[in-house]
Design brief:
Blueprint lengths: L1 E8 L2 E9 L4 H11 L4 E19 L4 E7 L3 E13 L2 E11 L5 E21 L5 E4 L6 E4 L1
Length: 144
């Protein structure tokens, strides 16, 4: 993965991240967030994956059910955020992918391998977002 700062104004920074074939998405996004010490950011992306594991949050179990998609797919929409969780950057992303037949699958992005590219635009906010543990859901949720 390569990255470049493309704009900076009034405390906001915009980066472009380019992933290459074989790159894992979530570990690289988290590594980037930690290296840049991001505490609040949002991102969008398009591209393609050779495989992806989606997650559906099971309310009763308070855990994600894994949904593997073991085929080449187009990333139709990938959106997410970076916020602090226990003082460290945490990445949260949702994705909708398109299959060869035009059908779609979507959910929480747990894991994915890029093929051939993923183009991410990430905007760091000057305001801090904090995630706190929500006892009802068991999730870390942004508190304003």
């Amino acid at each position: 993965m390569k990255s470049k700062l493309i704009h900076e104004a009034q405390g906001e920074r915009t980066f472009v991240l380019i992933f290459n074939t074989g790159d894992q998405v979530m570990p690289n996004l988290l590594s980037f967030a930690k290296e840049r010490r991001l505490s609040a950011a949002r991102f969008t992306a398009i591209g393609a994956f050779r495989d992806v594991t989606l997650g559906y949050f099971d309310w009763e179990k308070k855990d994600y059910v894994k949904i593997p998609v073991d085929e080449q797919v187009e990333v139709l929409s990938l959106i997410g955020d970076v916020a602090l969780k226990d003082g460290e950057p945490a990445v949260h992303a949702h994705v909708v992918v398109g299959r060869r037949d035009g059908s779609t699958r979507g959910g929480h992005l747990l894991d994915a391998h890029v093929r051939p590219t993923l183009e991410v635009t990430l905007v760091e906010s000057p305001a801090h977002l904090r995630k706190e543990h929500d006892p009802e859901s068991g999730l870390a949720i942004i508190r304003l």
